[in-house]
Amino acid sequence: MSMTHTTGEPTQPTGAPPSLQVRLALYRRMVELRLFEKRVYDVFLQGLVKGTTHLSLGEEAISAAYGEAMRKDDWTFATYRGHAHTLSRGVPMAPIMAELMGRRGGLMAGKGGSMHLTSVEHGMMGSYAIVGAHLPIANGAAFSAKYRKSGQVAVCFFGDGTTNIGAFHEALNFAAVWKLPIVFVCENNLYMEYTAISAVTAVEHPAADRAGAYGLERILVDGNDADAMYETAARTLERARSGEGPSLVEALTYRHAGHSRADPGKYRPDHEVAEWMKRDPIDVYRARLLSQGVEASVLEQIDRDVAAAVDVATEVAKASPPPGEDLIMKDLWSDGSSTWRN
User: Fold this and answer.
1) What are the helix and strand counts (H, E) for the chain?
2) Of 49, 154, 248, 325, which cross-links 142 as Cys (Cβ 3.0–4.6 Å)?
3) pLDDT > 60? residue 232
4) What is the pLDDT of residue 39?
5) Cα separation of the two ends of the chain
6) Do residues 127 and 158 touch, judged by C-beta distance below 8 A?
7) Alpha-carbon span 271 to 200, nearest angstrom
């Protein structure tokens, strides 16, 4: 599969670029996502992460842009590749890292792990391990916002493989009919686990080319361009918030590694990987900021600050003990424990 076939013609930004403050925030967030995920990879190899991991290396611009554009009371629904989306909603690094390690100080006391990150306090309404399961659930949240006239928006992220699952089509139809305040974001990294999405899909762009079937605008965006992603995020969020209904966004991107830690990714052509690596979202954005007058020292300070924060979060997570029975047995039975069974 060639890169030319899969990039198509993404929507070009039409408005002014975001403010310098927003752009520096986008850069900081992307660096945070990148360094956090690299550290997760390291501690996984040390045997400290329980279960598998699905990293977002190379896909940082998508979650960073929406995280920056969303209101604090908006909702995020993500897949099992949800570390970046959780961080982008402002959840601190230490409890996420501790959760991955199965520690008491984890986001869910170490019981959820990598694929089930949730923080209602931050509007992160869960990472879902069942492909496509969260799209109807996100609709439910959006219906609640519409009913209560709260102005909140649900943003539902999913991979390209989800577009061939029934829940995708059912959720889109329901959202369009009821004009729900929801944004569906397909993170198209070209592969549904180990299979090229182009090999099993009748259209070139699995989300954008199907939008018209539900009366929605065709939105295809370069998911490695933080500015384009931020403009798309701001526009689709405003559309949902103003009562105009849902949007379906297809963001073209590429994961730097395999599907999960167990996948070496050898099914991808070397030339394809090399071409996409040249479009690393952080490298592209850093070069753009420098070319537009941002001092290198400013970006270097951000790099150092984030690296130090990742170090601290890692040590805090390591220092947290495993959860005791008080937490392991909590939230499993209606009376709060299993003691009534004995």
Assistant:
1) 12, 8
2) 154
3) yes
4) 97
5) 59
6) no
7) 22
CA separation, residue 208 to residues 110, 116, 189, 217 (Å): 38, 28, 14, 8
Query: Which residues are CB-neighbours of 258 under 8 A, at least 6 positions away?
Result: 264, 265
> Do 220 and 250 touch, CB atoms closer than 8 A?
yes
For residue 337, CA distances in Å to 105, 110, 116, 322, 333 come to: 20, 17, 21, 18, 6
Phi, psi of 168 (to 5 degrees): -60, -50
pLDDT higher than 80, residue 334:
no
Distant-in-sequence, close-in-space partners of 28: CB < 8 Å, separation ≥ 6 = 302, 305, 306
Give me the pLDDT at residue 128, please: 95
Query: What are the backbone dihedrals phi and psi of residue 110, each rounded to the nearest 5 degrees, phi first?
Result: 85, 5
The encoded tokens of residue 152 equal: 């909140």
11: three-class secondary structure by DSSP: coil
DSSP code, position 232: H
Mean pLDDT of 9-25: 81
Sorted by where each begins, the domain ranges of the chain are 3-12+30-320
Residue 183 is given by DSSP the state E
Name the CATH architecture for the domain at 3-12+30-320.
3-Layer(aba) Sandwich (3.40)
CB 39 within 8 A of CB 97: yes
Q: How far apart are alpha carbons 181 and 246 in whole angstroms?
A: 6
**Residue 340's pLDDT is what?**
57
User: Phi and psi for 259 in degrees, rounded to 5?
Assistant: -60, -45
The whole-number pLDDT of residue 10 equals 78
Q: How do 124-128 and 154-159 pair as beta strands?
A: unpaired
Are the beta carbons of 63 and 84 closer than 8 angstroms?
yes
pLDDT in tens, 280-291: 999 999 999 999
Going by DSSP bridges, is the β-strand pair 182-188/195-196 parallel, antiparallel, or unpaired?
unpaired
Which DSSP helix (H) or strand (E) runs through 196?
Answer: strand 195-196
